[in-house]
Design brief:
Blueprint (H helix, E strand, L loop, with lengths): L1 H20 L2 E8 L10 E5 L3 E4 L5 E7 L2 E8 L6 E7 L4 E6 L10 E2 L7 E2 L7 E5 H4 L7 H5 L5 E4 L8 E4 L15 E5 L2 E2 L20 E8 L3 H4 L6 E7 L7 E11 L4 E13 L4 E12 L10 E14 L2 E14 L5 E4 L5 E2 L17 E5 L2 E8 L4 E18 L2 E18 L4 E4 L4 H4 L17 E6 L5 E6 L10 E2 L9 E26 L3 E23 L10 E5 L7 E2 L6 E2 L5 E23 L2 E23 L19 E28 L2 E12 L4 H5 L13 E13 L3 E17 L2 E3 L6 E3 L3 E17 L4 E16 L1 E4 L10 E4 L3 E2 L6 E10 L3 E10 L2 E2 L7 E2 L2 E11 L4 E8 L7 E7 L11 H6 L5 E5 L4 E9 L1
Pfam families: CarbopepD_reg_2, Plug, TonB_dep_Rec_b-barrel
Membrane topology: Multi-pass membrane protein
InterPro entries: Beta-barrel_TonB, Beta-barrel_TonB_sf, CarboxyPept-like_regulatory, Plug_dom, Plug_dom_sf, TonB-dep_rcpt-like
């Protein structure tokens, strides 16, 4: 027995030894042309289905390989994928792999604007991508500021992180001022950040970029008509970090300097991930920052951050992903700056295009809520906009066999945006009765009211000291005001501004389900997209007394006529006309449903035809309060000597309902002809539609029935493009024609006589734009490359009319102005980015010139915004394999370009009112422009593990 056991042990040892001897390892390193190690490259081996990622040194190892033939695939964002066939024998295999840069990511698979992942060069769309390295070359100041690097994309980030504008190809008419993302879809991981928009409530409120973002994919027009919810103008999809094969991550510390280098930014970003057991992976990251802002204001401009995660399970058939985000962020927005000289604008009234913010200082006031005067809403303008977003989602994709694939992405989110900010900062002369009447707009309709004329006393709200005493009693007879003491107000004016309170809530559900079938010549996708949003919106405005100077001070204002009681025109903080400027209280349920089909037809060896249809149905159902001054005796507090709370506006009890459904069919047909592995031409014809957003109901129909549905805008686009990807040159160019029809336009107006704010009747207009957009990279050497992208276009308002209310609610003096054939407003004929990058294995240096061409400031073409240039630069150094430092400077030379135009410098004025006739009649008038943000610089320290 013992002898038998010994023989058995000997045989087992021989067999085991033979098995072990037949197992080998694959070892290797991955680097670029500069011999710089590439960390995080995905190493996939078939047929063993083993995978790993490269370390910080670019190394990898795959163990326990049996003898045989294998294919190794190496992929990394920003580099062309590479496949290597090799044989495994009894010895270890060692490989040294050099990845070639994918200069425009044309060999990279894109998932945005298409129903099946495909390489950019094989798609029949105009698509661009930014990698995490590209993102890190920008000052972290909001989504729109980053998108200016996308060719053909017009962005206006002059207000800061929010209240931005983004559009392409002249599809812009309704994307102005308070609806800046009207035609585009801002997405995270393939679903919209927000399902609905309305005035001053855009998706940028709920989006921040940080280290959790792996990549940005951008689609301009074209296939967005059939691949996005109600967004035919383009898609900007921020894709999060994915699975890591080993524990690792990155921490980034940022110190920024802005304006006159006295405004600081402190920020920390982090992201890390690791594998768990049984093919589970997790990723967690986010950021927190405290930002003084780019201009001179005496409070923190932005603070807060977000936390994001994903948990992924992979199997042989696909993946399952759980993901989420929690955002809690405070940020503010800059309004305009006063200027004079219509032909060569210069800052006026002691203001400065680079440093002036005209934002109110900090103060706390409790303003009665018009819905229930027993309740109050706390207001402090330094809070700005507090945006909160809790989102949870589930995404999966599974191979069902027989070339069928099922995918579904579903997300629920709960959002809140609380606005405590201002809506204007206009010049209001002390010779203008508006300066006093705005304290109580009901003064003429109440028998017990005291007209605010006589001795007006202005006190500094903070110190309580008297600043000026004014006699305005002669204004009705045409006499100017008189100062009664030695004090005076800056510029003999007050600032026409408001304590603007808004509270917006939305609970949203959205999803996209697709089923895909591949055959020899067809790749057919059928799908369903749906979304539900329950949103409520309450807003009210109160007048605020403040000095009109670069750093405004709050003013406590009283009427102190001899022998009469002192009448408070403001409270002790300077707040006046509590809740009397405007009132909105509305709720809406939005249901979006869409069915779509797309076929990628391989009609010849190198020719692919895309055929896509989308049928969409959008229902808006809700209600809105009618409102009027509550007429409370003695105001909210019952004291007739406090005039500032006498004009509170609230509901009348009448409600206007709306329930409208918009149904439409969109299509997009594209063809891609691949000339060879590195070049292709494509063409695409698209017809898209844009249903109205909720602002149509919320802003219009003031105290009248909502008895008409909005108009669906029609977008037709034709594009023809060429793509080239070689070792030294990559280029994409797209010629396009776009037409936008049935554009509903309305102006925000102020009635001098009644003090009410209203929107003018809607006019329906059309525009067309012809242009060429391009994106190119030239790699002169392994270390030196040049980038050039931009657009040249001819934007025209083919049919355009503006309703002129003549400054009053009365309609007997109204006219309709015709500006058909003029240049389309806010669309430059030329804009581009030209830059260079020098990079070794330790050092990187970049320099970029951004040019914004001349634009019309309004559709009447009465005022032009001149062209301007900004220059950005940066330098980075890799201290060790784990630590690197970077310096980034935006607007290096402190250029003073003008990004926006708000019209004459008067309370309630609009840009469209500055017609050539108005400018000729008022050559010395001041007006409001929005300058671009001044120079900013930052130092970043990164630790990678």
């Amino acid at each position: 027995m013992k002898h038998f056991s010994t023989k058995l042990l000997f045989i087992f040892t021989i067999l085991t030894s033979h098995f072990l001897w037949s197992q080998s390892s694959l070892k290797g390193s991955v680097h670029d042309a500069n011999e710089t190690p590439i960390q995080g490259a995905l190493i996939s081996l078939s047929p063993s289905n083993q995978s790993t990622i490269t370390s910080a040194d670019g190394d990898f190892i795959v163990q326990n390989l049996s003898s045989g033939s294998y294919t190794l695939k190496i992929t990394h964002l920003g580099y062309k994928p590479q496949s290597i066939n090799f044989e495994v024998s009894n010895e270890d295999t060692i490989l040294s792999i050099t990845l070639e840069e994918d200069l425009l990511n044309l060999q990279t698979v894109v998932v945005t604007g298409t129903f099946d992942p495909r390489k950019t060069i094989e798609s029949s769309t105009s698509v661009s991508a930014l990698t995490s390295k590209d993102i890190q070359q920008n000052f972290p100041r909001g989504t729109a500021g980053l998108l200016q690097n996308i060719p053909g994309t017009f962005t206006d980030a002059s207000a800061g992180e929010v209240f931005t504008r983004v559009y392409t190809r002249g599809i812009s008419a309704s994307a102005e001022d308070d609806m800046g993302w009207y035609y585009t879809s801002l997405q995270e991981d393939g679903l919209p950040v927000s399902l609905v928009q309305h005035s001053y409530n855009g998706p940028d409120l709920f989006h921040r970029t940080d280290l959790t973002t792996r990549k940005l994919e951008a689609i301009r027009g074209g296939s967005s008509s059939i691949t996005a919810m109600n967004a035919p103008g383009g898609i900007y999809n921020f894709i999060s970090q994915g699975p890591r094969q080993s524990l690792g991550g990155e921490v980034q510390l940022t110190q920024g300097f802005q304006g006159n280098n006295n405004n600081l930014l402190h920020r920390i970003d982090a992201n890390f991930g690791a594998p768990l057991q049984n093919n589970w992976f997790f990723n967690l990251g986010g950021h927190y920052r405290k930002d003084d802002g780019a201009r001179n204001n005496d409070f923190t401009f932005s603070k807060g951050g977000q936390l994001k995660f994903n948990l992924i399970k992979t199997n042989k058939n696909g993946y399952f992903k759980f993901y989420g985000k929690y955002l809690n962020d405070y940020t503010n927005r800059y309004t305009g700056v006063a200027a004079t000289d219509w032909n060569n604008p210069k800052a006026a009234f002691g203001q400065d295009f680079n440093s002036t913010s005209l934002l109110m200082p900090s103060f706390d006031v409790n303003i009665p809520d018009g819905r229930n005067p027993n309740n109050t809403n706390t207001f402090n303008p330094t809070n700005g906009v507090n945006a909160k977003d809790l989102a949870l989602g589930f995404d999966f994709s599974q191979d069902l066999g027989n070339a069928w694939t099922l995918s579904n992405n579903i997300k629920f989110s709960s959002k809140n945006a609380n606005w405590q900010t201002s809506i204007s900062n206009a010049f209001v002369s002390l010779n203008d009765p508006t300066a006093y009447l705005l304290s109580d707009l009901t003064v003429f309709s109440r028998m017990d009211a005291t007209l605010p004329f006589g001795q007006i006393v202005f006190k500094d709200a903070q110190s309580g000291s008297e600043v000026a005493r004014v006699d305005n009693s002669g204004l009705f007879s045409g006499s100017p005001f008189q100062y009664l003491t030695g004090g005076s107000l800056p510029n003999d004016a007050i600032m026409g501004t408001s304590a603007w309170y808004k509270d917006i809530d939305a609970n949203e559900w959205m999803q996209q389900l697709t089923i895909n079938k591949k055959t020899e010549h067809h790749n057919l996708t059928l799908g369903f997209a749906g979304g539900l949003s329950n949103t409520s919106y309450f807003g009210q405005g109160s007048f605020v007394y403040a000095t009109y100077e670069p750093n405004p001070r709050m003013l406590q204002v009283t009427l102190e006529n001899p022998g009469q009681p002192v009448l408070g025109l403001s409270d002790e903080n300077g707040a006046s006309n509590y809740g009397g400027l405007f009132y909105v209280n509305a709720e809406a349920d939005v249901t979006q449903l869409a069915a779509f089909a797309n076929d990628k037809w391989h009609i010849a060896e190198n020719i692919y035809l895309d055929l896509g249809l989308r049928y969409e149905s959008i229902q808006h159902k809700g209600h809105k309060d009618r409102f009027a001054p509550l007429g409370l005796s003695g105001g909210v507090d019952g004291d007739p000597n406090t005039a500032y709370d006498s004009g509170l506006v609230g509901p009348t009890g009448e409600i206007d309902n709306f329930n409208y459904t918009y149904n439409y069919l969109s299509y997009s047909f594209g063809i891609n002809f691949k000339l060879n592995e590195n070049s292709a031409v494509f063409a695409r014809l698209s017809k898209g539609n844009k249903a109205p957003e909720l602002n149509y109901y919320f802003d219009n129909f003031q105290n009248v029935p909502i008895n008409a549905e909005g108009e669906v805008q029609k977008i037709n686009q034709l594009e023809l493009g060429f793509k080239l990807s070689s070792n030294t040159v990559s280029f994409t160019g797209t010629a396009f024609w776009s037409r936008l029809k049935d554009i509903g336009t309305s102006n925000f107006e102020f009635d001098d006589t009644s003090g009410s704010i209203f929107y003018t009747p809607i006019q329906f207009n059309s525009s067309r734009t012809i242009g060429f957009e391009w994106e190119s990279v030239l790699k002169a050497t392994n270390q030196l490359s040049f980038e050039f992208n931009g657009v040249i276009q001819d934007p025209k308002a083919t049919n355009w009319k503006i309703y002129d209310a003549a400054g009053t609610v009365e309609t007997n003096d109204d006219t309709v102005l015709d500006f058909s054939g003029n240049r389309l407003a806010f669309n430059p004929k030329l804009m581009f980015n030209l830059g260079t990058l020098y990079q070794t294995n330790k050092l990187s240096v970049f320099f970029k010139w951004q040019f914004m061409g001349k634009r019309e400031g309004n559709v009447s073409n009465g005022f032009q915004l001149d062209a301007y240039s900004t220059f950005n630069t940066g330098i980075g150094y890799k201290i060790s394999k784990s630590i690197s430092a970077n310096v980034v400077v935006s607007n290096l030379f402190n250029s003073e370009g003008l990004a926006n135009f708000f019209g004459a410098n008067s309370f309630g004025a609009s840009g469209s009112g500055a017609t050539p006739e108005f400018i000729q009649a008022n050559p010395d008038a001041s007006f409001v422009v929005v300058p671009i943000l001044p120079r900013s610089s930052l130092i970043k320290l990164n630790y990678i593990f």
